[in-house]
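Hi support team,

I submitted a single chain yesterday and got back a structure, but I'm not sure I'm reading the token output correctly. Could someone confirm the output below corresponds to the sequence I sent? I've pasted both exactly as they appear in my results page.

Thanks,
R.
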Amino acid sequence: MRTATPAILPESGPAAWIASPARVALMAAGVLGAVFVVFGFVFTGLPRDELESVFWGQTLAWGYDIQQPPLHNWLAVGAMAVLGPTPLAFALLRVLSLGGMLAGVWLSTRTLAGRDSLAPGLAVAAVLSTTLFGVGAVLNLTHSLVLLAVFAFLPWAVARLDAPTPPPGAALALGVVLGLGTLSKYTFVLFAAAFLLAALTHPRMRRVLLRVRLIVPTAVVAGLLVLPHGLWVLGADHTVVDELPGLLHGRAAGLGARLWDLLRTGWLDPVAGVALPLVLMGLIVPAALPGGRWGAPADPDPPAPWRRVLLVAVGLSMLLVSLVTLAAGGSRLREHYLMPAALLLPMWAALRVAATRPGPARAGRVAGVLIGAAGLVVGGVLVAGGVVRPLSCTRCLTDLPVPQWAEGLRAQGFQGGTVVAPELDAAANLMRAFPGSRLLWPPAGPRQLAWRPGTRGDDCLVVLSSPAEWPRVRAWMENTLGADGLPSDPPLITLHAPLRGPLTERDAPLNALAWPGGVGDCR
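Hi R., thanks for writing in. Yes, this is the structure output for that exact sequence:
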């Protein structure tokens, strides 16, 4: 790759921090450390998707939930093998995924920028200062975090091919990224296709990407990674395609209303979610604005074609996702569906700023503002999640009084065994208190019964979100677990404890039924 003329940076101050890989890593480590402390030690419960991973992660399999590929669950199996099904295990998985995303952003931007040392650090700080990633990704995502961690390396894997002699293992690296991305979220295929098509707009990359000697080994590596799960999907009774209308919020509406919903949720919302650092960079370095309207034009340096590739990839991603959504009968997209495309925009903006070769003072201002914004956004959301959210949350999954519930269940005679639950909110959170127990989730179907046939304990526990669920659960247990003779109106255990949080005394009740000694195969 041809390299750009690097900006002249000061030897100290924010710009020096941003330009130093070690200091950028230290800044990211501080953010990730705060996330780890809040999710691993402050929160007492797990978010929703982590609860499903507690269930699916009871065994290794080529596939689990038809809506999600298995990579996150495989990682969860490893984390739980070391730390148990605890907030600590999933906090570790969260920070590793976030760290992978930030490392990919830094490495990809550095590769696209050539010799410039300012752009990679600016891109990392910009990502952390967005509401989409600094708030949404930090606080809410699971499978999509793994997707972002893999996708962030795709520009690096493609751009390193832009050399007279690509480095050894370039096709292997691209194949690994494509394979792991597909195993993280099925939507990766759309974003990867968009980026590869966008890369064809680069004059030199057209010759590289269409070479058979690149396509064949890349496809072989990616195919070998995906093949076992692909065979599992072929053997399933249905695929994620059958569930797309529900996932994409299909509704009976005219074409105009559906197009507006798509424009708003698929185009405007993702851009708005990353707008803050882009606006700040544009205000401080006006020459970085498209066309350099309020200053000298951005330098048409060698990385310029890659900046165009990033913008084309964003547009193609949004277009492909919109077309798939319309074809599936959907109309609205959830916040995180377009995150991989949005991740490219802070990288593009950082490259634009670096291309202007800002002087030391301006480089220091933009670096300082982005570092401060990242600290405020991430710090604010962690404080809000740890202190404010318990005051107004509805399901309150991260704030459940799991230790108090577990103590109450032991007092009622449940020491471990099999836990049956039509909903995972409380039951999956309780699993860490009863190591070696088996969790059964009726909506998952009969496949789960082959898992963990031996349990540490002989008791049976049924966790209900409402007593009205008992007739349905009772029928399932009689038909599936051989638990004959269950009473229609057994004595209900109701435990009360306050939600976690220094400012709240809100009650969090737990409804359960317990059979010490077990019943049928529920033991």
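A quick pointer for reading it: Strands lie at 417-420, 438-440, 459-464, 493-495, 510-515. Let us know if anything else looks off.

Best,
Support desk
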